[in-house]
Amino acid sequence: MNRKDIIEQKLQAALLPLHLEITDETHMHSVPEDAQSHYRVVAVSEAFEGKSLVQRHRLINKALEEELAGGIHALALHTMTPGEWFDKGGKAPESPPCLGGGKQA
Q: How far is it, in rounded angstroms, from Cα 6 to Cα 104?
């Protein structure tokens, strides 16, 4: 199982999300193609109700503790309640292009 699938499986179990997107953005960075090191997560869950942004991110970090300790370099998190998701028209911001290393625009 690749790292993206593991992330999805763990977040499905931890959050029971209404919507979950995991995007491997490793190709946008100056690392080997197969590094599986940069991810974007859009998670919409009732588990975020009444929680601050920091608390939401901590929920995800706890669920992905092993992956964060062993190979994930960057995790862009977009965490919303169902109400926030619908208010935003079911959209989350895209990641900006990487300007580090050899991937300068």
A: 30
- Residue ranges of E strands in 1-105: 19-24, 38-44, 74-80
- Classify domain 3-87 at the CATH class level: alpha beta
Q: What are the residue ranges spanned by the domains of the chain? A: 3-87
User: Long-range pairs for 27-30 at CB < 8 Å and ≥24 separation?
Assistant: 28/95, 28/97, 28/98, 28/103, 29/73, 29/74, 29/98, 29/100, 29/101, 29/103, 30/98, 30/100, 30/101, 30/102, 30/103
pLDDT tens figures, 48-74: 999 999 999 999 999 999 988 987 778
Model confidence pTM above 0.90:
no
Q: Where are the beta strands (DSSP E) in 35-94?
A: 38-44, 74-80
